Hints:
The protein is an alpha+beta fold. The chain is about 45% helix and about 20% strand. The chain has one domain. It is rod-shaped, with a radius of gyration of 27 Å.
Amino acid sequence: MKKREGFSLSELILGVAILAFTLGSLLSLFIHCYFLNEISRNLNVATSHASSILEYIRSQPFFGLEEKINNGEYNYNNSEIFPLFNYTLNNETITTSVTQTGNPLGIKVRVSWLERTNRTRFLDLETLTTDY
Length: 132
């Protein structure tokens, strides 16, 4: 009688189960990395927007700058951001405030947006500017 070669049914089921577990784990890892990449991209975009607004404010004449910030001249909502930048975040708003009056003038820019999980995130950047 010839010896039959090949896998038994139990070996085949065990191999398929290991393969399914491995592929499921890899898929879960891929999805997790995708969401982490999106969070990182959003933080990078928010930092870029806040930095650009701060640099724009710092390029303005110092006289009257505090009043303009307090009057909301440098605050932007989602529809006003798109003409300034090529990319906007979900429900993005940019607000500016004065953190220190006088000379030097402290300025804070806050960028807030809505993540995919409906969680509101924000990023603050602060700087000092002077008329010297």
